[in-house]
């Protein structure tokens, strides 16, 4: 055990030294200052900010919890895959079609599904971080394209958080900006010669409602849709209430289409977003 702890410390120390050197070469002491601030934010400030124990001090998190509680929690019919849950009443196999929108550097769900069912995973993310991560993982079942998914085929401006994180075309973060090509879900499905899919997973920083409404408009109905709905990053109560009104309308659309809505539990960062599984398991037969 001490040997493992020492090895971990050496790796962490080397990463720290390499970070100092990289940012010093990039922007001298201004770069080093940014690196130190980023490390402090990621390792300390962010963990305190997103901690669950003080959620009741934030009216926005309290209201998010109240909204969450109107949605039934997943039950024994669901199985955990990485950081999401799938309905076991729709068993997957090697021929299943799974789309994953939003990657960055977390493919725990995608790897779990691909490893267990040996089916291809079609992944889309506009960031270079995602491309590097996918190349590093080098999973034989991954089919990745560095683009965004939108309700139009067009170039979109993305905003990134100052100290790292997922880019968004909805939330205007104060960090680096970049332009990336985006395609409609229908366009990538056509390119892949798909007319349907078994699972659609989305973690796309505020863009999900618009894309899902478009998906329902064109008549695409996956067996399961797993979505993280991020609430607005502003302190505007109007934006906050509009978000929940929009989400309730979307839930109603899914349920009108024969889906059952389930809330997926979160262990960390509770009430900053809501994770939902829309499952066709309870579709009423005509």
UniProtKB/TrEMBL annotation:
It comes from the Bacteria. This is FkbM family methyltransferase.
């Amino acid at each position: 055990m001490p040997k493992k702890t020492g090895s971990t410390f050496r790796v962490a120390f080397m990463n720290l030294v390499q970070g100092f050197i990289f940012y010093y070469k990039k922007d001298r002491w201004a770069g080093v200052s940014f690196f130190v601030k980023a490390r402090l934010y990621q390792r300390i400030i962010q963990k305190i900010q997103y901690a669950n124990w003080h959620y009741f001090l934030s009216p926005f998190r309290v209201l998010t919890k109240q909204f969450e509680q109107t949605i039934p929690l997943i039950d024994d019919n669901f199985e955990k895959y990485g950081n999401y849950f799938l309905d076991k009443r729709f068993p997957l196999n090697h021929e299943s079609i799974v789309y994953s929108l939003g990657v960055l550097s977390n493919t725990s769900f995608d790897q779990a599904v691909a490893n267990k069912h040996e089916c291809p995973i079609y992944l889309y993310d506009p960031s270079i971080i995602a491309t590097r991560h996918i190349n590093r993982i080098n999973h034989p079942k991954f089919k990745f394209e560095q683009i965004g998914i939108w309700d139009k085929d067009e170039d979109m401006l993305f905003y990134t958080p100052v100290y790292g994180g997922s880019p968004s075309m909805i939330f205007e973060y104060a960090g680096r900006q970049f332009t990336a090509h985006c395609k409609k879900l229908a366009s990538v499905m056509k390119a892949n010669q798909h007319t349907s899919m078994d699972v659609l997973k989305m973690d796309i920083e505020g863009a999900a409602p618009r894309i899902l409404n478009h998906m329902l408009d064109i008549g695409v109905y996956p067996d399961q849709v797993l979505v993280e709905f991020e609430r607005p990053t502003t302190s505007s109560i109007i934006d906050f209430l509009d978000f929940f009104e929009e989400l309730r309308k979307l839930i109603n659309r899914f349920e009108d289409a024969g889906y059952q809505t389930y809330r997926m539990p979160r262990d960390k960062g509770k009430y900053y977003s809501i994770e939902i599984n829309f499952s066709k398991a309870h579709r009423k037969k005509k």
